[in-house]
């Protein structure tokens, strides 16, 4: 098992009817920017619950944060903070809203004029505090310190991380996900699944405790995905998905392990260029990465076959290949396509994605840093 350090200060409040607790969680004198995405947060009453819980606190609403939050939109929120002299932020939504708020929190305190520099590695020394009301389980952003931001005008999508942008608290009410369209719910299952395997299906490091955490969460997702497709009104299944998604990326699953994240790096470019849902880009790229890195990942994929899919056998290679096939079958059962052609993309998309990878310097990806531009081309070509 590799050496590790673990730190996570986010307070979790889990359960139904917990939004009212904002009154005790948000400082009494706070002046709050309430950030959300589309109209559903208002239409279904969540924003009303949030503002009611804020009581007499000054607040300003900022809606319209996109799926895969756009840099230029977020700059408008930074301007709103300065204009209204606000000092606290509430993210009401899923991973895109939360990621956007992390950037807003950092950018509003960033001395440099070009805020995109944060996404290019410029250090941040302070950030506004913020809390979360989660409405879409998927990314785990409600309990981690990373964010991914798009710059659509430039066709870019990049990430940043800092211990300064951990949420102070996150309210997880599974009943708030009952109104989600099936597509978003299934995306959440796939996103969580890939978050787990990007940390698990790499090398054998002897991190038995972490492996057990990951395998247990994967088995939960294999169960709740079909349950929610058949019965979207199951609060129990939604509770399991919400907590699994949070634990998939709150730092626990990286302890003692070595991460991959090449699937995300390549998938991000498909979103940046073609607007494909983040989870669906992962479903496209993952099988290709596993096939390309079969020899290096064989032992862990065979372990996954036995511990997650319940398969038996002595041939490690066959078990590893069975894991790839079973994973792709699982995504298909959720209605998620796993080929570029499922999204009307052809070889020209391969060329464009690889060009974007070169533009951002993503030329040594994966746990072994051996997925270069040639390898990325081969992986994407295999997914046509």
Automatic annotation (TrEMBL):
Keywords noted in UniProt: Oxidoreductase
Signal peptide: none
PROSITE patterns hit by this protein: ADH_IRON_2 (PS00060)
Annotated GO MF terms: alcohol dehydrogenase (NADP+) activity; butanol dehydrogenase (NAD+) activity; metal ion binding; methylglyoxal reductase (NADPH) (acetol producing) activity
Cofactor(s) named in the record: Fe cation
Residue ranges annotated for the Fe-containing alcohol dehydrogenase-like C-terminal domain, each copy included: 186-351
UniProt keyword annotation of Signal present: no
Record-given protein name: NADH-dependent alcohol dehydrogenase
Organism this protein belongs to: Psittacicella melopsittaci
